[in-house]
Amino acid sequence: MDCSTRHFSSLICFLLLVIWCDSSFHQLNVHVQISNDIGKDLDLTVHCKSKDDDLGNQVISYQNTWEFHFRPNVWGTTQYYCSMAWKGAFHWFDIFVANRDYPYCHVCQWSIKPDGPCRFNYDTKKFDCFKWNSN
Could you tell me if 118 and 130 are in contact, meaning their C-beta atoms sit under 8 angstroms apart? Predict the structure, then answer.
């Protein structure tokens, strides 16, 4: 390999590294807010996980909110799923899926209802409801 080819290859590698680093620094933190709208006097027990993180059990009283935040990975594959339980019920849901939620929401507001979770839509100013995941 002659000197000019080696310099050109090094320059290309350097530029790719700069582009990759720049894109990873622009990833914004995502805040996930989970509100208990199950029903009066019913606590909601939430246990959220990703492939890398286990956020443990959280008990959310009626009309209160718990939140967590994270930085999505550069590959766009970040996913968090949560089990949700209250008296007489147990469900789970993918509370954050990168290709569904990012970059649509950087603050993902979820209202948990008996029929399923509802995410606030910043365009319509209303909640869009989803079905629980199949067991």
Answer: yes
How would you label 25-35 residue by residue, b for 16+ Cβ within 10 Å and e otherwise? eebeebebebb
Residue type present at position 126: K
Question: Strand, helix or coil at 1?
Answer: coil
CA distances from 54 to 30, 50, 51, 69, 97 (A): 16, 6, 8, 13, 16
Of 18 and 110, which is predicted with more confidence?
110
| pLDDT tens-digit readout, 50-100 | 999 999 999 999 999 999 999 998 888 999 999 999 999 999 999 999 999
Write the DSSP assignment of 70-132 as a string of letters.
E---TTS--EEEEEEEETTEEEEEEEEEHHHHTTT-SEEEEEEETTEEEEEETTTTEEEE-PP
Q: Can you give the pLDDT at residue 15?
A: 45
Q: Give the CA radius of gyration of the chain.
A: 20
